[in-house]
Amino acid sequence: MLRRWCCVVFLAALLPCSSCSCPGRGRKAVAVGDGPAVVVVEPDAGNEIRPIIEKENNDQPQTAQSIEVDLWYQGSIGGRGGEKADVDYYRLVVAEDRQVLSVTLAGVVGVDLALTALAGPTGTTKIVTLNDNGAGGGETLANLSVNKGQYLLLVTQRVRKGKEAGKGSYLLQARLRGLEEGEEAEPNGTRKSANDLALGEETIGYLGWSGDTDWYRIPLDGFTDGSRLGISFEGVDGVRAYVSLRTARGRRIQSRWGGPGEPIVLNNVVPPRGAKFIYVLVGSRRSSNVESRYSLAVNVKAGLQTVEEENNDSAKSANELQPGESVWGMIPHRGDKDYYRIVLPASSFVKVMARAPAGLDLRLLSLNEEGKVRWQMDANQIGGREHFPALYLPVERPLVVVRSAKKGPVDSTASYSLKVETLPGRNWEKEPNEKAEQATVFSATARRFQGFIYPAGDVDVFRFVAVSKQLSMRIVPPGAQELKVDLVDEQGGIIARAKPRDGEQSMGISATLSVGQVYFLRVSAAKDAFNLQTPYSLEILPGAQTEVAP
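Above: the chain's sequence. Below: its structure in token form.
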């Protein structure tokens, strides 16, 4: 499943004109998942920019002005002879498939602008029209999936009957980025354009305009009689959304509305007998959010064999759970604790994923040999997910405990889900390792380690003893996430800091050490970010020997 996120911030500045609500500083979006944020521009009095001026006559698709991504364009909108409202066409050429187009149209004071995206050299196919924000508000197209080809952007204004068209200058900017794995591909507003979403997978998307609807086609491969479906939707701020389950012909099976920003959960859903697929529809009516993304997941609940067996509130009565299987349980009261014994052939590293229902705030616990809490995770709020991205479980005590958060509501009617997957290999960080006394130890046989930066603010510490003067290390960050890696001595003094390696998507540390001394590597995110999907790696390169620290 997918996790949360890396933000791309676009900044703009005020155009020197009196009639344009032009961009000043960008407001960073709160994003769901490891995805880019969309910036909503706001008026500001500083940081002037020099946009490219519109070239008239561009009021026909054939005479559309060609534009480039990431540049700002200034256009003028107004009535012609007091009769016909002006329209402006812009042409964008996309050179690669699987791209996401975002467009910002800064508003004009007193003018109700509309933005339309069309496909084809002459705009024969209308994709979407945005007109959400009224006079002076501008429009933002958050995510439109595009492939190689030509696209037109049409700027118009809405004029009430009997009123004259307004006049003024606006700003327009288009941006492109690659489509993320698991991201919705707009347009997906009909059954025919529905995105495929496999059982057990997660997708992220925007409810980016009023009335936006996103259709997902769910193949029922592997669904067996006696099983149930669970649909989990994590909402976005300010949007009152709904989730609807539909048959192959679009007939409604079950629907539920949530309050503004609230998550929605549909549990124990039974699809029509013999159905090969169903649809899940996510939408809103009068609200939207171009700053943050929702997440949607459809999971299978198997029969009674995968439901927790109470009483399992102690290590002695723990339920067994095989890696790769999911179990469903309930926390009906605050004192309830559900123990699970993970069936492992040997001590292993595992990934633990718990998904809470809408009315529950979960907490995950890992216990030490004395039964005391060794590591706990409560990183998200009500209806959210909790993860141990890399948890070491000794074969003699492979326990995971689920309980409610210390504060917040419980839910006696809805179920949480828990799944454990084994991680390949043994050279993973051993959490918790944020302090020197908890450090994961490098050795002559363990020269390469992997780890996760999770949750936000996570710090991972590694320890080794130098047996040669020269140290050379290679650090591979998780995807596009920036890491901060420091080499420190026992007193906490920084000896060296990782730097980018020439010609590589990696970082390196080179330093001269004192033989026999203990050193530490301290790993954290360069920004307040995290990554649940991709681990980072640390490797001591050949020629720099270490041994187990005493």
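Residues 306-422 form a domain with the Jelly Rolls fold (CATH 2.60.120.380).
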